[in-house]
Design a protein that fits this description.
The complex is a heterodimer of chains A (321) and B (498). By secondary structure, chain A is an alpha/beta fold. Chain A is built from twelve helices and eleven strands. In chain A, strands 2-1-3-10-4-11 form a six-stranded mixed beta sheet, sandwiched between helices. In chain A, helix 2 packs antiparallel against helix 11. By secondary structure, chain B is an all-alpha fold. Chain B has 23 helices and two strands. In chain B, strand 1 and strand 2 form a beta hairpin. The chains are: A alpha/beta (321), B mainly alpha (498). Chains A and B meet through helix 3, strand 7, helix 7 and helix 8 of A and helix 20 of B.
Chain lengths: 321, 498
């Protein structure tokens, strides 16, 4: 009896293995859904759509972008984690994915719930101040903040946003005390800093560059490990504050359990999409850079990012809920 | 000269074949929904918003704006012919316009409404062009304390001026505040009233409330009433107003335009307030006030000019400050954001073609509306005869599609249905839904700015009176309260309501 049972189980196992490998061979045979857990118009959407269009070309099947915004990306990401692991539902994740576990009680496991496919690229940030603030370099800002603890104020797009976390990391690294003033989104925060009400902001390069060029804001440093190609004259923050890097990033994941053959196929398609002129051109015009990693490297990167931001969230005393 | 150059540049943008077409579609749809009771510009723009994703920003905005001011025109047609306000602002037009129609003077009433609106639209357009740029400069001086004081003034003005039972409107404002609080708190990130539902953590969508309470609630209410429509189509014969009509209407139109422009810039004051004030003013100035309510042409001319001027100047705070002065403007801001344009003072310098093109298109649109409204009256009247059993299901279906497409979530549809039921109950109990929306929009913004101002001043409340702009708004708020609560004004308002 037990023998018969084990044979049945083995047969069933073989059958599953066969069907999945068949599925992987002719994958994709219908449109693929790419969930972007943010509303249209933001950086996740711009990057995701661009890569989605190129993936369609590479895979030979339509990749349909589906914006499922809500709760800092949690709503859309949950849909990805619960989708059947057949390669027909993919999701765009970003820095927020590494931060959310420390802010919210998530309805999914941020690492084990997903199969990493690859990273699409990174987007640098820039530290700007209103010209009325008497500092011209990162060191001067740190010195001023230390001279007047809690007197300086920085604006952010809200609790848990990369503007917030990037600034908190800055405070932790520099051991400076600067007051956080949260706004509802990057736009209102930027308007406030332009008016000189709050005077410091750590913001995305795309949003900030026009104001830096017009002289309305002063750039102290960019957040990447190397100088930005868009603003080559501006030093990195780490030139003045060693050890500091904070960049936004975007990647693609599938639900956990997606067959390795399909992951491999998708990674190859992503890599080819990243080489197209359309993508490289658009990325550089947005001040972002194309980054390539193997699926395993990207999986490890997700874990290291989670650890990095866990420290910032815990030591910075950031709480949501 | 700069102004002239800018306007010319704007007309260049607006006169492209494509943008002319968007403008035409906008005002046509606007007139249509203005004529049809139950569908307002708010719900329509909400429904059409997702369709504009793929249209370039200028065209999208021109079209949406056309719907908005087109509806103000269309609303008067139904009010005059059927005594049914297609738009809330047209309630006043019903009073004398319908009486004129009964006397066989529907033609002149419609013509005066169109002329008055056109004049007001032209002035409103010029005002945006003139006052826009300086206002944008001032806008950057607005920090958290200034925004708080400004919104306080808007909320107080709206609450005081609201028609009907003050207690009821105040309780609806509070209800709106409560709904507005749902979601993540900006300052602490805490989830409030979300009941662990992740879909609620970003708050309740404005479109959900607007469509639920206005479109769904209104339809359910209408279904409960027997269809009762009396139309004076046969009597629409001679269109042109007489010389006396024109003379009698000229000043009311000018005064209505002035009133409407003033209220337009104030956040939170709907066009209904502008037209009511204009009606009150005309009645007060008239040599023989007893004619009002019996077909006085001034009672049509003034309020129609006022509501159109209001609709037009509502764009000033939206375009220059990124501040929505009404629900429709909040949707316009949404349209900008969807297009990847950050609303705020920088729009004018970074996207001049958008700003000036939109302004120029408004004037063109107003001219189109005069043409649309006069010869096509017969067609609009036909539309009024579409049976509700066909009209209502269609509206419901389009609303549901519109809501779903905003964030591709069926949760929002359930929420809308819930608000539809609530809206029906509120209507039955005599609670007007407009204050609810006001509280919903302004409340959270006020809270956010109050707390931000206190955070930045380290808990010192004097910041509201030591900063000059903020102080000016606080003084204005007190003045509004004193003037409007004065017994004489109160009595007038009540007399009118009867």
């Amino acid at each position: 009896m037990s023998r018969l049972r084990s044979i049945t189980i083995q047969a069933a196992g073989l059958l599953i293995a066969l069907t999945t490998s068949v599925a992987a061979q002719d994958y994709p045979n219908r449109p693929v859904r790419l969930i972007i857990p943010f509303p249209p118009g933001g950086s996740n959407d711009v990057v995701g759509r661009m890569i989605g269009t190129q993936l369609s070309e590479q895979l030979g099947k339509q990749v349909i972008v589906d914006n499922r915004a809500g709760a800092g990306g949690v709503v859309g990401t949950e849909i990805v984690s619960k989708a059947p692991p057949d390669g027909y539902t993919l999701g765009v994740i970003s820095l927020a994915h590494a931060v959310n576990p420390w802010l919210y009680k998530l309805p999914y496991d941020p690492i084990k719930g997903f199969a990493a496919i690859g990273i699409m690229g990174t987007g640098p940030n820039v530290l700007v101040v209103h010209p009325s603030l008497p500092v011209r370099t990162t060191q001067e800002l740190i010195a001023l903040a230390k001279a007047k603890p809690g007197d300086l104020q920085y604006a952010s797009a809200g609790i848990g946003s990369f503007q917030h976390l990037g600034s908190e990391l800055f405070k932790l690294t520099a051991k400076a005390d600067i007051l956080h003033v949260p706004f509802k989104g990057g736009g209102p925060a930027m308007t406030d800093v332009l008016g000189g009400h709050t005077k410091i902001m750590f913001s995305s390069l795309v949003q900030t560059t026009p104001h830096i060029k017009s002289g309305k804001l002063l750039a102290l440093g960019t957040g990447g490990s190397k100088r930005s190609t868009v603003l080559p004259d501006i030093p990195t923050i780490s030139e003045g504050l060693p050890g500091y890097t904070a960049e936004n990033w975007w990647g693609i994941v599938a639900p956990a359990g997606t067959p390795p053959a399909i992951i491999k196929r998708l990674h190859a398609a992503l890599s080819a999409a990243q080489d197209t002129e359309a993508v490289t051109k658009q990325f550089s015009s947005e001040g972002a850079s194309v980054v390539k990693m193997s699926s395993e490297e990207f999986g490890k990167y997700m874990v290291s990012e989670m650890n990095k931001w866990e420290r910032v969230v815990k030591e910075g005393g950031i709480k949501a809920e | 000269m700069d102004l002239l150059n800018n306007l010319l540049f704007g007309f260049g943008v607006a006169f492209s074949l494509q943008n002319l077409a968007y403008c035409f579609i906008g005002v046509l749809v606007g007139t249509l929904i203005g004529v049809l009771p139950g569908i307002g510009p708010l719900a329509t723009i909400a429904m059409l918003l997702p369709l504009t994703f793929n249209v370039e920003p200028v065209g999208a905005l021109i079209m949406l704006a056309g719907i908005y001011y087109g509806a103000q025109y269309g609303g008067s047609t139904t009010a005059i012919l059927v005594n049914l306000p297609g738009e809330t602002a047209a309630v006043v037009t019903c009073i004398d316009g319908y009486q004129m129609a009964r006397q066989g003077r529907a033609g002149p009433a419609l013509a005066i409404a169109a002329f008055g609106s056109f004049f007001a639209g032209t002035v409103g357009t010029l005002l945006i062009a003139l006052a826009g740029p300086p206002l944008a400069e001032v806008a950057l001086k607005f920090g958290a304390p200034e925004y708080f004081s400004l919104m306080l003034m808007g909320l107080v003005a709206a609450a005081v001026l609201a028609q009907g039972d003050t207690i009821k409107s105040l309780s609806m404002v509070v209800m709106g505040l409560l709904f507005g609080i749902v979601g993540s708190d900006v300052n602490t990130g805490m989830h409030r009233f979300t009941f662990d539902i992740f879909e609620l953590s970003d708050g309740i969508g404005f479109i959900v409330i607007a469509v639920g309470v206005f479109a769904v609630g209104e339809i359910v209410t209408n279904l409960g009433q027997p269809e009762r429509r009396e139309i004076f189509t046969a009597k629409v014969s001679n269109l042109m107003p007489t010389r006396e009509d024109l003379k009698a209407s000229a000043w009311p139109i000018v005064r209505g335009t002035a009133l409407g422009s003033f209220f337009g810039v104030l956040p939170g004051t709907g066009p209904a307030i502008a037209s009511f004030s204009s009606y009150m003013l005309e009645k007060k100035l008239a040599k023989d006030p007893s004619r009002f309510g019996k077909g006085a042409i001034e009672g049509v001319a003034g309020p129609e000019a006022a509501n159109n001027a209001d609709a037009q100047t509502k764009f000033i705070p939206m375009l220059t400050l990124g501040l929505p002065a009404s629900g429709v403007m909040a949707l316009m801001l949404g349209a900008l954001t969807i297009q990847g344009i950050q609303p705020g003072p920088q729009v004018m310098t970074q996207r001049p073609e958008l700003f000036w093109g939109l302004i120029a298109s408004m004037w063109i649109g107003n001219a189109m509306l005069v043409i649309l409204n006069l010869p096509l009256i017969g067609l609009w009247v036909k539309l009024l005869q579409v049976p509700y059993r066909l009209l209502f299901p269609a509206i419901m279906a389009f609303s549901a599609i519109g809501i779903y497409s905003v964030s591709n979530s069926s949760f929002e549809i359930y929420l809308t249905a819930g608000f539809g039921i609530a809206g029906f109950l509120w209507l039955k109990l005599g609670f007007s839904a407009a204050p609810l929306l006001l509280g919903f929009v302004l409340g959270p913004m006020m809270e956010e700015n109050l707390r931000r101002a206190m955070l930045m001043s380290k808990g010192d409340p004097s910041v509201f009176v030591t900063r000059p702009i903020s102080l000016a708004f606080i003084i204005a708020t007190v003045l509004i309260l004193v003037v409007m609560i004065a017994p004489a004004v109160r009595k007038k308002k009540d007399a009118l309501a009867e």
